[in-house]
Amino acid sequence: MIHLKNVTKRYPTGHEALSRINLKLDKGAMAFLTGHSGAGKSTLLKLIALIERPTRGRLIVNDQDLAGMAPRQVPYFRRQIGIIFQDHHLLHDRSVFDNVALPLVIQGYRQHEIARRARAALDRVGLLHKEGAAPITLSSGEQQRVGIARAVVHKPAILLADEPTGNLDPELSREIMELFIRFNQVGTTVMIASHDLELISSLGKPMVRLHEGHLQRERAPESA
Ligand SMILES: Nc1ncnc2c1ncn2[C@@H]1O[C@H](COP(=O)(O)OP(=O)(O)OP(=O)(O)O)[C@@H](O)[C@H]1O
């Protein structure tokens, strides 16, 4: 589902954030990406989501070679991916429902389909009863769950999360990770960058460690 072949990313500053990365994550698999701050975790997720392009090497995501993808194809490619950030980027002048519905509105879904899917996504994160609330009135764990509902509302094949529990206490962090495991159990391929080693090593999923842009396998999903 996600295959990186000898991928290097050098930013215009000259800094090599990733060096010759080979990594394979099968369809329906789940893995954690670990490493210290600056190790290249966010860069790797950005390459998979085509937010950044590699300097060298190839990425195959959901059977598509990203090198050959024209800019006009990128929005269609991204529909296969849901992305969750540490600070969830919610729109604070819109309701919880509107935030979750937004990707479907942009994609031109019909009104009744938007309502059905947005409520289903909110239900899956346990927040259907908050659909009319303003995000600012929710706890940080609830706000993160709204971000997750928005990321899964279009039923992406791949879910990428960048430090999704960075601002949460240990108990809420575990709840959020368990939510990701549930999405994985219904077939979504999941990759999560996190430096919360204590939590993720207790979850029994493969871990891939980056160190200064180099891959150091721990319990790797599969060698490429
Ligand atoms: N747009 C950019 N331009 C130049 N350098 C960048 C850019 N984005 C990231 N970097 C550099 O690349 C390296 C890897 O950054 P990245 O954000 O991928 O690390 P990370 O492992 O996600 O770190 P953190 O856990 O702190 O988010 C860092 O040294 C960073 O300063």
Automatic annotation (TrEMBL):
Where mainly located? membrane
Every copy of the ABC transporter domain together lies at 2-224
- The answer to whether keyword Membrane applies is yes
According to the UniProt record, one GO cellular component term is: plasma membrane
Q: Which InterPro entries does the UniProt entry name for this protein?
A: AAA+_ATPase, ABC_transporter-like_ATP-bd, ABC_transporter-like_CS, ABC_transpr_LolD-like, Cell_div_FtsE, P-loop_NTPase
Q: Which domain of life is it from?
A: Bacteria
A molecular-function term among this protein's GO annotations: ATP hydrolysis activity
Per UniProt, what is the membrane topology?
Answer: Peripheral membrane protein
Biological process according to GO = cell division
The family classification in the record reads: Belongs to the ABC transporter superfamily.
Partners and quaternary state?
A: Homodimer. Forms a membrane-associated complex with FtsX.
What is the name attached to this protein's record? Cell division ATP-binding protein FtsE
Originating organism: Ectothiorhodospira marina
Q: What taxonomic classification does the UniProt entry list for its organism? A: Bacteria, Pseudomonadati, Pseudomonadota, Gammaproteobacteria, Chromatiales
| Encoding gene (name) | ftsE
